[in-house]
Amino acid sequence: MTPSRGLAPDLVVLSQVPPPVHGQTLMTKRTLDLLARDGWMLRLVDRRFSRSIDEVGAPGVRKMLAAVGLAARLGGQVIRRRPDAVLLFATTRTASFCVDVVLVRLLRAVRVPVVLTIHSVGFRRIAARSAVGAAAVRSLLGAAEAVVCLGPTLTADVRPFVRTDRVRVIRNTPAEVPPVSVAERQVQGRRTVLWLSNLMPGKGAETFAHVAADLADHDVDFRMVGPVADDATAAAVRSIVAGSAVRSRFHLDGPAYGAAKWEAVRGATVLAFTSELDEAQPLTIVEAMACGTPVVAFDRGGIADLVEHGVTGFLAEPGDTAAFAAHLRQILDDPGLAARLRRGALDAYAARHAPDTHVQAWRDLFDHPRTTSTISRRTR
């Protein structure tokens, strides 16, 4: 809320909603839905550079033209009805980052406040590459009224470029968790290690296949749930599994959405998050916590803000697949430990990631004296 005006904020939101289906598009939709339900006035300017997962990060003429169109559409929204602020979901992908810098400077020139929400990691890497990169990062982050990160660990990526009082933390929250159906209560499923992501380079699909092969001595099913975004990655997974004793219990299930996805997450004994990327705050892990499913993950990016070692799951050093497999064995071999981790995951979700907590954090941001004074000064 904006107490100085007595109304919910009127925001233009610059981001993308599905498709394609990945963390930032899903969280954009979720945040928009929750804030709209809370009475906020929101207008989405959909950046839509990529139409499918395999297009993400790939350059092209169509994307260049889309960037020009994006600037025009944003300008139209700002001119027609000047918003209280523009909420921009920023990214560190090179092309999108450059577009963000230009758009934020244009908004700054016409005195429209900008709130950046960061769903990726890498601003310090961009700044380290060159003096031009450092200047661009400072230009983007320094122009914002507030920079929203997903967790405390991730604030280190922006703090060198932003005043401390402008950095805020608002954590991800998943879609509504459906109630447990009667059928689910009646089915006593087998123990399952779940992998849930897009099958593409960097997401650790091959690593999961190797870990599964290492655990072939356990009477456990291994499920990979997610769309195939890269045929070579899927072929590599099949090749690894074909030569192992786990092949009859390893399932490439394809994508699952809605109730089917929640059933897979809730029915898993443990979620194996083998991503090799510096993830910010993977929504898949938050969804697992919402279901009380323990998580084993590599300690990269902001994952330590989610997975509390020994409380909600376990963390392994990046690349240490032996330790990763050992943590899975701990959970699979000790029902008491698995139960404690499930309770820990549910408690952490309720305390940090519930929908009401997410909405309240956004209210608090726009109730912040500095943010409020900027908006009220502009609208007097």
Explain what this protein looks like in three dimensions:
44% of the residues lie in helices and 15% in strands. The longest helix is centred in the first third of the chain and has 20 residues. The radius of gyration is 22 Å and the shape is globular. It is an alpha/beta fold. Helix 4 runs antiparallel to helix 5, helix 7 packs across helix 11 and helix 10 packs across helix 12. The protein has 2 domains: 190 residues, 3-Layer(aba) Sandwich (Rossmann fold); 171 residues, Rossmann fold (3-Layer(aba) Sandwich), CATH 3.40.50.2000. The strands form 2 sheets. A 6-stranded parallel beta sheet has the order 2-1-3-4-5-6, sandwiched between helices. The chain contains 14 helices and 12 strands.
Write the layout of secondary structure elements.
Layout: E1 10-15, H1 23-37, E2 41-46, H2 61-80, E3 85-90, H3 94-109, E4 114-118, H4 123-129, H5 131-142, E5 146-149, E6 167-169, H6 182-186, E7 192-196, H7 205-214, E8 221-225, H8 231-242, E9 250-254, H9 259-267, E10 270-273, H10 283-290, E11 295-298, E12 313-316, H11 321-333, H12 335-352, H13 355-367, H14 369-379
Parallel strand pairs: 1-2, 1-3, 3-4, 4-5, 5-6, 7-8, 7-10, 8-9, 10-11, 11-12
Helix pairs in contact: 3-5, 4-5, 7-8, 7-11, 10-12
